[in-house]
Amino acid sequence: MKTILVTGGAGFIGSNFVRLLLGTKADYHVINVDKLTYAGNLSTIDDIMDHTRHTFVHGDIADATLIEELFSRSRIDIVVNFAAESHVDRSIEDPSVFVRSNILGVQILLDAAKRYQIEKFVQISTDEVYGELGETGYFTEQTPLNPSSPYSASKTSADLLVQAWHRTYGLNTNITRCSNNYGPYQFPEKLIPVMIYKALQNTPLPVYGDGSNIRDWIHVYDHNQAVLQIMEHGQSGRVYNIGSSNECSNLTVVKTILDILGKPHSLIEFVTDRLGHDWRYAIDARRLRNELSWTPQYSFQDGLKQTVDWYLEHQSWWKDLLENQ
Ligand code: NAD
């Protein structure tokens, strides 16, 4: 039995990852540490809370004493770090907590990982570290780091720390850089869940600028399958891009959600664009596909329909979160 420390496992992607591990890998015990910020909620992990191979710890990765306690109490083999402040708009309002959780927190985890000589450290990064693309081209793992927002700058800083711990101390690391995720349990502040709940309430759907910004969408299940492959088989020190070639403008995403729900496009309301809004992201994931034989399961159409259905069936989950923000 191996012990994996999953951080941020009460958030969107982390909770889906813990669920995937518990459901498919009988030889892992998961210690799930989460600060339970506004984005992390116990209702998100209600169904797995009492699982015999799951231990939940309410705590902050930037708390060095707590992290030391966790490592000294259990023999941790692997760290998968999802914990982060993750919302670009919030980082524009107040970058300070992004620096603390996304940079200092990573340094504290890396120090512990080095001290206890763990087997593997996986840093969940983002394609936003590459900045933005024009009409053509793709982000590869060699694309220069050129972040735009305080959020992406903090994630880039963390990537550089991880790289340094690999080169200087020989820590076995991987960095994953994934495109925009969607799927069950995404906090209702990100584009897709916001549009679903606003459409359900027949209230205007706010779209930044003219809605032409392009994102490369991936279902959270496909992202997490890739993380699992990388965690188990990724080459030491390597960065892996993750993406499933589903480029789509924000406006098309919003219109598709309205169509799935049978709501009129007249609900769309164009609002002032986000500051420093990156125009296009698109991922070249050939390294992941070729080296680790990963392929995504979801087409964007099927995944979006499944996600809309999930939000329809779990209205009390997102309504409670919105009320208690
Ligand atoms: P999320 O905001 O839904 O979840 C983040 C979780 O981390 C929350 O449960 C929160 O409570 C926890 N957390 C925050 N600060 C913490 C701290 N200091 N200590 C412990 N826990 C803390 O975010 P998400 O969308 O699930 O993203 C998870 C990771 O994936 C992040 O690192 C993000 O940068 C990365 N990522 C996200 C996307 C996306 O589209 N959502 C795409 C690529 C990469």
The succession of helices and strands, N to C, reads EHEEHEHHEHEEHEEEHEEHEHHH
Please give the number of β-strands. Answer: 13
Structural category is alpha/beta
Q: Hey, roughly how much beta strand do the residues contain?
A: 15-25%
Instruction: Describe the strand arrangement of the main beta sheet, using strand numbers.
Output: 3-2-1-4-5-6-11
Major sheet size, sense and barrel closure = 7 strands, parallel
Residue stretches low in confidence (pLDDT < 50, at least 5 long) are none
Radius of gyration: 19 Å
Number of separate helices: 11
Q: Could you walk me through the main structural features you see in this protein, from its secondary elements to its overall organization?
A:
The structure is a single chain. Helix content is 42%, strand content 18%. The protein has 325 residues and is an alpha/beta fold. It has a 7-stranded parallel beta sheet, sandwiched between helices. Strands 7-10 form a two-stranded parallel ribbon. The structure holds nicotinamide-adenine-dinucleotide. Nicotinamide-adenine-dinucleotide binds at residues 7-8, 10-14, 33-37, 39-40, 60-62, 82-86, 101, 105, 124, 126, 155, 178, 180-181, 187.
Summarize the structure.
The chain is 42% helix and 18% strand. With 325 residues, the protein is an alpha/beta fold.
